[in-house]
Specification:
- The protein has 198 residues and is mainly α.
- Helix content is 71%, strand content 0%.
- The radius of gyration is 19 Å and the shape is flat.
Length: 198
């Protein structure tokens, strides 16, 4: 597949949505609904809330296809950023309401909870979006407790290559905590957002 094929798909999808093609929305939903739902669920920890965010995100994309700028990054990242921002906003609202109602906890604890949920969702997204060789190395090293030599043998690569993949994967994961305000638009240039981080 040509390197630009995903971007062409993104641009074509945006055009189809802008023309009100319902089949395009269905295709987009089939491709990204599990991503949207899992990110929302990771932030909210609530199935109903994740369902609601999923509906809201796809409604927003359907009603505002021109809000996506293909020059700023992949459609997948834009949709993930929309999801993340809405889920974090919803979490903050529900937790603030619970705090006001019960009087238990502090605003600082609420913000820590929001930051933790935001970072966990970002880490999940980063792992699923990273290239397969990096993800495979991290999975072997961290989920199967393989050292870099065993990882190299399992992947059929040199030890230097295994170390490189692990280092790059960890560098990507380290960006999960980069956003100071989880409801704000992330900083340009950081993966994986619409030209921004999630």
């Amino acid at each position: 597949m040509p390197k630009d094929a995903p971007r062409r798909w993104d641009r074509r999808m945006q055009q189809r949505l802008a023309h009100g093609e319902a089949a395009a929305l269905g295709e987009l939903y089939d491709r990204f609904a599990s991503l949207v739902h899992s990110l929302a669920h990771r932030v909210l920890g609530d199935e109903c809330g994740a369902d609601r965010i999923t509906r809201e995100v796809f409604a927003h994309v359907w009603e505002n296809p021109d809000a996506y700028d293909p020059r700023q990054g992949p459609l997948r990242s834009w949709i993930a950023t929309l999801t993340h921002q809405r889920a974090v906003r919803r979490l903050r609202q529900t937790e603030s309401a619970a705090l006001a109602l019960s009087g238990e906890g502090t605003p600082e604890e609420l913000e820590r909870k929001v930051r933790r949920a935001s970072a966990a969702a970002r880490a999940d997204y980063i792992v699923t979006a990273m290239p397969t060789p990096l993800r495979a190395a991290l999975e072997l090293a961290y989920f199967q407790r393989r050292d870099y030599r065993q990882t190299a043998a399992d992947l059929g690569v040199t030890e230097d290559e295994a170390r490189r993949r692990l280092r790059l994967g960890l560098q990507l994961l380290s960006t999960a905590n980069d956003t100071a305000d989880p409801s704000a638009s992330p900083a340009p240039g950081a993966p994986p957002g619409h030209g921004t981080a999630l």
